[in-house]
Write a structure and sequence with these properties.
five-stranded mixed beta barrel, alpha/beta, 9 strands, about 30% helix, 8 helices, binds hypoxanthine
Amino acid sequence: MTTFVTLEQIDQAADAIRKRTSCRPRVGLILGSGLNSLADSVKKPDILPYAELPNWPISTVQGHVGRLVIGELEGQTVLVMQGRIHYYEGYSMSQITLPVRAMLRLGLEMMFVTNAAGGVNPDFVPGDVMLITDHLNLIGMTGANPLMGPNIDELGPRFPDMSQAYDPKLMKTAHRVAVTENLQLREGVYCALSGPSFEGPADLRFLRLAGADAVGMSTVPEVIVARHGGMRVLGFSGISNKANLDGSTTTTHEEVIEAGKIIAPKMEKIIRGVLRAL
Ligand code: HPA
């Protein structure tokens, strides 16, 4: 039985956050596997463990901390999700996206989302940072869309447009920051699968033919819900491993976390620069 969260449950979570911080955040940041360290730079942080928030799904994956850090970063008020929840953990799509809906009810204007991903584009190498220009919603195409179930009209329309899911202006700013910081910023299409098994060689050859540049197990459900509610979105993939198109190498979670150490400082510079430019 699929569990659909209600507006009341979302508001309970949002109200609990409001009561625990006087900060009124403008930008939400969701940090992916091995990319948690940016939250440690938040000034005057209010720290809210997910376990203390009503209806909030709890992340169970190594490398995901599981708390909100609310405060200031580069002159902006931010709400950082240090650790996200994935569909493969067994929650419904509606449950894993409750945090984004709470952001909407708290009045956040923007969401910056990061993830670790496999590089499907043969030009990409581990350690690269990719700006997400569009996504391939393969989980959604198989019926697992976070907007399934009764539409919450207070948040957005039944049939939301996704033609520009990733904000063109924010993307331009990210590219400008990358140039200023002398960092290479790739760009491309992120494909979301459910995981938790990594893709096999035939999966990956299919994804490449379908136009994917990177593949991962998150982000797209969050982006759909954010766009449903009218938030502007910016997304980055950290390329943690090369997709194994010929079956000659293996992929491990440890490798993904290890690559995060190279990726995180680059991604942080770009995100900080975009925050400063807002
Ligand atoms: N596939 C799916 N998800 C991932 C990968 C991958 O190769 N690397 C990091 N997350």
